[in-house]
Structure formats: C-alpha cells, structure tokens
Amino acid sequence: MKTVQEINRKILDGNVCVVTVKKMKEIVEELGTEKAAREVDVVTTATFGAMCSSGVFFNFGHADPPIKFRKVWLNDVEAYAGIAAVDAYLGATKLSESNEKYGGAHVIEDLVRGKEVELRAIGYGTDCYPRKEIKTEISLEDVNQAIMVNPRNAYQRYNAATNSSDRLLKTYMGTLLPNFGNVTFAGTGEISPLNNDPEFRTIGIGTRIFLCGAKGYIVGEGTQHSPPYATLMVKGNLKEMKAEYMRAAFFSGYAPTLFVGIGVPIPVLDEDVAKATSIRNSQIETKILDFGVARRNRPVVRWVTYEELVSGKVEINGQEVRTSSLSSFYMAEKIMNDLKKLIEKGEFLLSEPIEKLPKVQEVKPMRQREVVVVKKVMNPAITIRSDTKIEEAAKIIIEKNINHLPVVDDDQKLVGIVTSWDIARAVALELEGSVNKIMTKNVITVYPEDPIEIAASKMERYKISALPVIDTKKRVLGIVTSEDLSRLIAR
Amino acid sequence: MKLLLSFDSTTVKKPIISKVTLESGALINILRASVGARKGEIIIEVPEEKVEIVEKILKSEGVFVSELKKAVEKNEERCVHCGACISVCPTEAIKRDAENKVVVEEKLCIHCGACVTSCPTQALNLPSI
Questions:
Q1: What is the ipTM score, two decimals?
Q2: Which listed residue, A70, A85, A275, B2, has the most CB atoms within 10 A of its CB?
Q3: Is A52 a catalytic site residue?
Q4: Which of B78, B81, B92 has the CB atom closest to A331's CB atom?
C-alpha cells in the first residue's frame, strides 16, 4: 500500500519508479500483480485522438472605448460571446465563414504556434460599452486568459464504424467505403487512461494530467459519460501548450475538429491498481456500427475487441475488412514517454482526486416533439406488372392522376418503377410493348418506419420525386411523394 | 515503372494499349483508368526493361506520357500518424512501421488520391506531374 503523498515524496527525492502502461503490462505478466505493485510507483497512460468537444475560453482585455461583444470572430470563425463583455468560447468544430476547411481547431493551433489571428467583433453600443465594432490582431501573448476547457475528451472506448450502403460516406469517423469496404475506430484501447482505471480509483475530479504539453486538470466526468464508455472534462492553460501535442483537423464532409493529446499518470497504490493497468486489448470490447443507416440507433454489425481493430483487419460477414485508426498510437506512446520523463525529473507531481467520477450514468436520446415516419404520410400505391403494355400504363397514370407506378411481380415484390417521364420518353422514341422495356429497375425505396427526413434526403440526393415504401421482403406497401412531404412542411 | 498516359479526343478512340502490347511484347498492368468520349487518363505499370520501347510507341501514337516516380507526398509536420488513410488505400501502400508511424510504400502507390481526401490533418498531397 502506498499513498499519493508517498509517491510524490519519491518523485521529489528522485527515486520514483515510473513506467509506461505498455511496459507495465509486461511487468505484471512477468512478476505478477503483487511484485509489480511493490516495484512500480507510477504508470503513464495516454490517448491522442480527434476530440470534437474541445475549445478555449478567452478574455481579450477591454478596448477603448470599450465594447460588449454581441458577436465575435477569430479568423472568421465565430466564438460564443453570450458571456461577459470581452469573454468568448471558441469551439473546435465551428467552421470559418470564409474558408471551407478552416475552423475553431485551426485558430487554436495557429495561436499555439505563435501566429496572430484577426479578431472582429460587433457590439450593442450601450452607455457602459459604447463601441459598436472592432477589428484588430491578437496573439496568445496579448490575451489575458486562454483556457482550454474540453467538455468531452478521452473516451474510454468508442463505437467503431462501417458502411453497408453502396455509397461512400464521409463522416466524423472518417471515410467509410461502400459495401463494408473498411472499418474505422477511435481510442487507444489498452493504453488509454480510463481503460486502466475503470473503477475510477485514481482518476477523478482534480487529477493533474498532461494536456497538449501543459499541465492540466480533470474537471469532472465529460458529457455523455456512460461507463464503460466513460469520458472526461478537462482544462489547461493554452498559453503553456505545445503545437506538437495537438493538431487541427478537418474531416472531409463533416467539420473541423481538434486532435488532443492527453496523458494521465496512475499512482500504483496497491495490487488492485496494478491489476487494472494490466488490461489487454483482447479484454476491451466495443461495437461496430453501420453508418449506412442514417438513424440514431445504427444497427450493430458485430461486437469486436480492440485487439482485432488494432490488428488492421476484422471479419465482417465472412470477409476480411481492413481497419483504420483515427487515434494516433505513435503520439500516445510519445506522450506516455514524455510524461514519464517529466515525473522522473520531478517536474510533474501527482494529485489525489477530491471527488470520484460517477460509475453509472446513462445517455438518453433527445426528447423530441414527434418523429413523423413515412407510414404516416404515405399513400396506397397503384402497382402494375412488368408485362403491362406501355399504353395501358399511360392510361392508368392519366386516369388516376399520378406520376409513379411501382412495378411488382406475382408476390407483390418490387421489380421496377415507371414514371410519367418514362412514358413521355417512350412516346417520343416511339417505343412499344411492355413497361419492362422502359422501367427503372434499380428503385430507390424507403421503409414505413423511416422518419420522413430520410425520405426527403433520398429524394434530394437522387433527384427523384417519389419513393415506393416497402417491407423487408421488398413487398410494396405504399408510395410517398415529394408533394406529400411538402404538404407537411406547409401545414 | 508506372506511367500516366493522357489521351486527347483523337487518341482516346484508338486501341493504343493493345497496339503497344502487341508491338512491344510488354505485359502491361492497368492500375487505374478513367476513359470518356473526349479524353482519357490511364495509369499503367510496365516492366523496367520495356519502359523505353513502350514509351516510344505511345508517344509515336500521340499519347502524352509521364513517368510516375514519386508516390503520394506526406507532410511530416501535419501528419499525426493516426492511420485514417490506411484502410482507404486500395493497394495497401500505407502501413504502420515498428514505431507505429504511418509510412507510404512508394512503389505500391497508384496516385488514386483516396488517402488525400481521407486525411484529417491534410498531410497528404499528390505530387505534381
């Protein structure tokens, strides 16, 4: 049994034993938990990944005459100004209003690199704050405070992503190739801080950490904290940070974000702590979700361990699928080593948490007024068979005053669609015979339980005006048209 | 050796690759092809000993030929070695080394650019030809 105070004394005396958690796993394997706990005082853990919930609080100092920000921009990226006069919070994912691949994260990195950024603001013009606008340049040296406060960092584990659809998807999980073409995952698994202290014995409110090269602190549990998908809220002084431990990023088709480097020292207080730090990737499980389904509850393709994800290949439906990490194992290992050196040099002392992180917390979905599903707005479909004559189809379209005729087989299964446009084209080209010749065979469809937003985005993406509604056996249940949807919006 | 062939509206209509194969006897591997009605671009791989003759025939047919010597370029200052690019590379040209750094194996790169758009830190760029 050791205390944090005893370990800190050892650090100051210069005889502390610090190892990276990578090394610790070998030591525990070799010596067992009891001996490992006796010999090792501190284990360093780390993660380095794209963490969207990151940002910086600034105080810019007062202008003359003074201004109360109504809106403020840094390099054309808007920061939140709904706090005191010259305070603002710049979020990592906020996009620039003029540069499509630049955002809050880039402003943060530029400042840390010593660059000047343009501050532009508009004010209300009050008795106490008469100025209505300002434009100036600032650097990190010029501002009073620049405090990084990240509401959700260091996810213990994260759902991996794949894509069953036939379309390439650009997501916050990176590029997802069609037809289960790849799997992307985030988190550093067995070397990640929270996986090595799942009981939150040493990681808690007030824990001193390594944050992007500076000393930082854990403020508390992060947003969406839900063990074993635990998260941390952290803070640190941006003025002390180093650009090499952070990196502005832009996920194509999604948004800017910030790669954040976090190192957490774990004091080896006893055998239980030592045992917790011996966790292996094979013991850390997560889900692979299908991003091909644009719903909140994305289907679970399968469960997977970090061991498989890190190996570079996982199996999906009997096929080998390659994986991509979105976190940097190289940088995480560098941080573990750098933090180890800081502690050994006596420059980084450990702190005891003053409060524990909650062990149980659920993530609720958003309360919504009403989710309107396709079933509610669809109309009965008038269907035809593929051997229906073109003239017959034309007659039905006129008589029923509709534009779309789903084509079905004997079991009511969808095999195609004929539109009034197809008929017009057939007439223009003097085509005769059955609709089989002119129908579209690759039909875009929706399910009755799909929200109407899904139907709308499909119509927009494929530039079509109606979607047959089908069940899982491809039987036609109805049809939903763009007019049905616009009626909803107009009501 | 990898060659980038650019075809204009005249050359794109002719069976030039077949002609080159028959005349040079070179076993040509097509790595990437984008051929339309008015122009086309094809990347082929040619055995080293046949490069000279293949290039000569192609040029005589009016095809613009450039040798692809460099792979996709990685800016080491921007790269954080996350590996987002690894699984989108169709030829498995991007790998991790023993240090967990992300490295590009030059000879496998076919200049498709898939990694360029998938790189979150904009560290990858196709070399100018």
A1: 0.84
A2: B2
A3: no
A4: B81
